[in-house]
Specification:
262 residues; mainly alpha; globular
Length: 262
């Protein structure tokens, strides 16, 4: 259990502000994506819809995290005093269990595979992502370092499988994408890998010298930064890819129509 009384007043406020910023980013990204959904071709609207759903789910859970943080402790006479309710870290894992598989599915959808390929890749990558989250939670709430390390190792197995698929398994498919979006899809794939790699690093902070209030700040703000990059920033990349592919297909369609008239 987290001992919030090890936090200084500034550390407590810093984490609260980080949660508030995370909520604002997720909520505003959701509104933008759903309002702009009609600007992409019908083939890519599902990808944009799911992208907005990811940030909407994240926004809801950040609101719950903020409320739980407020209930778990307060500042009295310049000191952090714990409340009657513990800080609920499960909100993050419920959020990840829902959003992490969807993050991979939105990338697959925007690449416009065949229906069978889309289903197969979504099941494999989405299933591996869900398994990664499930295996990580027991270690997150564990009281002993040994238990935390065991579940970190277990959760890294599906994580490495996902990394392999994104970096190598999808390479042939990415190379077949239109030139004007190929670099963006490459960046999006590596963005997933880079942002997701931050999670297991943050997970290890309590094991590599971070203690007391510093450990809480490092973990909570680290997860928040990773969430913003993995969901909001990645979501905007997905939208941009969908928009560029829409424009490219529109130009191709116009060219085809002109040739037919000629």
């Amino acid at each position: 259990m987290l001992n919030l009384e090890t936090l200084s007043m500034d550390q407590y406020s810093f984490i609260a502000n980080a949660f508030s910023f995370g909520f604002a980013v997720m909520a505003s990204t959701t509104i933008f994506l759903w309002l702009m959904r009609s600007s992409v071709a019908p083939a890519y609207r599902m990808a944009v819809t799911i992208t907005g759903l990811v940030t909407a789910i994240a926004a809801y859970h950040y609101l719950q995290i903020m409320l739980s943080w407020d209930h778990a402790a307060s500042i009295q006479a310049g000191e952090v005093v714990t409340g009657d309710e513990p800080f609920n870290r499960a909100y993050r894992y419920v959020d990840w269990l829902l959003t992490v598989p969807l993050l991979l599915i939105e990338l697959i959808l925007v690449m416009k595979f065949t229906q069978q390929e889309t289903i197969n890749k979504s099941l494999k990558l989405g299933g591996a992502a869900a398994l990664m989250i499930i295996l990580g939670y027991p270690g997150e709430v564990a009281e002993t370092i040994g238990t935390r390390m065991i579940f970190w190792i277990l959760s890294m197995i599906p994580f490495l499988y996902i990394v392999y698929q994104l970096v190598i398994g999808l390479r042939e498919s990415i190379d077949k994408q239109p030139e004007n979006v190929k670099s963006l899809i490459n960046i999006a794939s590596y963005l997933v890998v880079a942002s997701w790699a931050f999670y297991p690093i943050v997970y290890l902070f309590p094991l590599v010298g971070f203690t007391g209030g510093s450990a809480i700040v490092a973990v909570e703000t680290g997860y928040t930064i990773a969430d913003i990059v993995a969901k909001a920033v990645f979501g905007l990349f997905i939208f941009t890819i969908a928009l560029r592919k829409t424009e490219d297909e529109g130009k191709s369609g116009s060219g085809t129509s002109a040739n037919k008239k000629a």
